[in-house]
Write a structure and sequence with these properties.
Helix content: under 10%
Number of helices: 5
Structural class: mainly beta
Strand content: 35-45%
CATH topology of the largest domain: TIM Barrel
Number of domains: 5
CATH architecture of the largest domain: Alpha-Beta Barrel
Distance between the termini: 59 Å
Largest sheet: 13 strands, mixed
CATH class of the largest domain: Alpha Beta
Length: about 750
């Protein structure tokens, strides 16, 4: 796959150069080329031949790669260790090498600088660089954890020792997936009887990459009658996903699908699928990610193909950082969204990420219902073409003003730059806040909205930079969480109906699972639902006895019944019912077991900004009880040590970025004490003291803590249907919402129902 064309890339290079355009600053050769497996060890030779200006004393060359690369830090001192790099000049002049984390502007954030010392190189002299030099025992250069169709090594040169580096050449390799170690079966969550639907199947390697290494003989079965369901699963050559189309179920009920190998062993079970005679359906989306034209990888076309054909999304969008979006790329974004959008198959919205600094409003996602709209950038920070700079909206109030009257929707986002939603508000435009992405979990942005009196819904997306919208794993980089998904409740799969769902806040978000979640308010006589937010314009509520998530309702009286229905892929650990920021009730669909497994959870972040990553390093020790088994929860980074050290000790090295991780521990015996030691907080407890209610150790920071509690040794309840009565607080909005946590560590959040007086 060729690299992304320069006119589409949102990067800039110095205008100053030693000679006229086209001057020869050098040439390069590279070997080997081809396709290489993720996380494999390789050795590459890059030879730079000096051009007509020579390479002066203290001049330098630099090899840069994209920011997303998580292959590990290169080193120059230990020839037997991984990632050993060498460089030699053909004329013997000494060379100095060091790694540079930010050698150039984004996305070229990983570099090796090679500087000439005590001499110079003449035209046609060479510098031979070996990336992963194996000559003295190094296993080689360790590649990144994720696939990339055109991983690029770009060489820059500062031939006159001025500190100005110019691009000379680039060479690409393909990084491909490993063999399947896990299988995923994706079914719709909610459909009507007789309505056609598709089933998706993919295999993932150990790092979560969808793989094209598919064994023969896979079959699929359902636990109820499904019309059109074939027995065999067929993958086309080179495909990383298989879609089984034209299925339907003619009677109400619940269905799960199983994938089997040739021996009849179950490889995976789908999410639950609910079938009803009428009502709305649910459609899954990841509306937030980037491709290689900005700070991600792979071309946008591949991004959309992955979303549709591998992640089996119903809805997506492409959200490039606006200050990197060239006019050529903005045109291409609109052309591709129009080409890929197809009602009842795959809905794609044109849009972009408005990427202002936090003091000016911070990251917001902008979605248009149609192509051809003006992009209002936060700045032209990485754009040489200034012809349309007058259309910029540098602050959040300016953005809302520029978008007013257009058919668009805005979400607030917490990425590198967290949004500051207090800077401006427009309830017609900003309909939701993103509480989870690859960057972590951010419930605080929702409770900020409550405090400010806003009425917004909940969305979860990936903000993926690794070419895998809808199924983006954190790998070994600074991302700390698996990508989120948003479930839209709508009549049909079309731009019009999904936009209606957005504006009514009729959606919920998850940390990547596809559970069915219903939250219904029982209003009784005298209740009503506002057709739009009455902050937008005075409007009377429409009489109604019920309301759905996202609705703004009027209710006579000081309490309300809330009906909750959950059908999950895994046993339910808890369901929290919240009024604003306060948890008012917790439902646990199992009996307490004071001698059951011990669950240890670490969670939280340093603070709201870029450096939010919290490192949890330590141990869990038992003085008398012995460890029978341990199961990790949300331990995404396979390189970090997290294991049973001996029969009474577990050692862990983990990260959280607002989300949570941890482990379940099954013990032989319940005697003695457990001690947890970490760099942030430590504690010592009698095992008999830890029961169903949580024991909490506060670790400062942003909701940073350790939690210990008991769960039954075996949990089986994946379904919950419950009606609870909520006491309403007087004199303010009561945002009622639900948080669901499953046994395996996934979370779902409903959009609030806003009860207003």
């Amino acid at each position: 796959m060729p690299k992304i064309p320069d006119n589409i890339m949102g990067d800039i290079w110095p205008d100053a150069s030693p000679g006229p355009d086209g001057a020869n600053y050098g040439t390069t050769s590279f070997m080997p080329e081809g396709r290489f497996p993720v996380r494999s060890f390789q050795s590459f030779q890059l030879v730079y031949t000096v051009g007509e200006f020579g390479l002066d004393d203290t001049g330098a060359i630099m090899v840069v790669t994209r920011w997303t690369n998580d292959g590990g830090a290169v080193q120059f001192d230990d020839p037997s260790a991984i990632n050993y790099v060498t460089a030699h000049a053909s004329n013997g002049v000494p060379l100095e090498m060091y790694a540079e984390r930010y050698p150039h502007q984004r996305p070229w954030y990983n570099g090796i600088r090679i500087t000439v010392k005590r001499g110079y190189l003449s035209p046609d002299d060479t510098i031979t660089i070996v990336l992963g030099d194996r000559s003295k025992g190094s296993p080689g250069l360790r590649l990144q954890t994720f696939c990339e169709s055109a991983y690029e090594f770009r060489l820059l040169a500062d031939v006159c020792a001025t500190g100005v580096f110019l691009p000379v050449s680039s060479h690409t390799i393909e990084i491909g997936p490993g063999s399947a170690s896990k299988w995923v079966v994706t079914a719709p969550t909610l459909r009507r009887t007789g309505e056609p639907f598709s089933l998706g199947v993919r295999g993932e390697d150990e790092w979560g990459n969808a793989t094209d290494q598919i064994p023969a003989g896979l079959t699929v079965m359902a636990d109820r009658e499904v019309k059109g369901l074939p027995k065999a699963v067929t993958f086309t050559s080179g495909a990383r996903g298989a879609s089984i189309d034209g299925l339907c179920i003619e009677h109400e009920g619940e269905c799960r699908f199983s994938l089997l190998n040739p021996l009849g062993e179950v490889l995976a079970v789908s999410n639950p699928m609910i079938v009803r005679d009428n009502g709305y359906a649910s459609y899954w989306g990841d509306l937030h990610g980037q491709s290689g034209e900005t700070v991600g990888i792979n071309p946008m076309r591949e991004y959309l193909e992955f979303a549709r054909d591998v992640a089996f999304l119903d809805v997506t969008s492409h959200q490039a950082n606006d200050f990197q979006v060239t006019n050529d790329f903005w045109q291409q974004i609109n052309e591709l969204t129009a080409a890929f959008n197809k009602d009842e198959r795959f809905v794609v919205f044109p849009g972009y990420e408005w990427s202002a600094n936090t003091p000016l409003g911070g990251d917001h996602n902008v979605f248009f219902s149609t192509e051809g709209q003006q992009i209002h950038r936060s700045s032209h920070a990485l754009l040489q073409d200034r012809s349309d700079i007058a259309t910029d909206a540098n602050t959040l109030p300016e953005l809302f003003s520029a978008l007013r009257g257009q058919d668009c929707v805005v979400f607030a986002h917490v990425g590198g730059r967290p949004a500051d939603i207090s800077k401006a508000e427009d309830p017609r435009l900003r309909t939701a806040v993103e509480v989870h992405s690859d960057w972590g979990t951010f419930e605080w942005i929702l409770t900020d909205a409550f405090r400010l009196g806003y009425r917004v819904g909940v969305v979860c997306n990936s903000d993926g930079h690794k070419g895998a919208p809808g199924a983006c794993y954190p790998g070994a980089s600074e991302f700390g969480a698996y990508s989120g998904l948003t479930c839209f409740l709508a009549d049909n799969l079309s731009r019009e109906d999904i936009f209606k769902s957005m504006r009514q806040r009729r959606h919920y978000g998850t940390t990547g699972c596809r559970m069915h979640l219903e939250v219904t308010a029982l209003l009784g006589e005298g209740g009503g639902v506002f057709p739009i937010d009455p902050r937008i314009e005075p409007v009377d509520p429409v009489p109604s006895a019920t309301a759905l998530m996202g609705d703004i309702v009027r209710l006579d009286g000081d309490q309300m019944d809330l009906s909750i229905h959950v059908e999950a892929h895994a046993p339910i650990e808890r369901v929290d019912i919240l009024n604003g920021a306060e948890t008012v009730q917790t439902l646990r669909p199992y009996a307490p077991d004071p001698t059951g497994r011990l669950r240890v959870i670490w969670q939280g972040a340093e603070y709201r900004g870029r450096g939010r990553t919290t490192h949890w390093r330590g141990s869990i020790k038992f003085d008398q009880a012995r460890i029978r088994d341990m199961k990790k929860i949300n331990a995404w980074n396979l390189d970090r040590v997290f294991e049973i050290k001996d029969d009474n000790t577990i050692v862990f090295d983990a990260v959280t970025t607002g989300n949570f991780g941890g482990c379940d521990i099954w013990l032989n015996g319940n005697e003695g004490r457990v001690s947890i030691e970490s760099e942030l907080v430590s504690g010592d407890f009698g095992l008999a003291e830890i029961r169903g209610e949580e024991t909490v150790l506060d670790a400062g920071g942003l909701d940073r803590k350790l939690r210990l509690f008991r769960l039954p040794n075996v949990m089986e309840q994946c379904s919950l249907v419950e009606t609870v009565s909520i006491q309403l607080a007087p004199g303010r909005d009561n945002p009622l919402w639900v948080r669901v946590v499953t046994e395996d560590g996934f979370v779902a959040w409903s959009s609030p129902i806003y009860v207003t007086k």
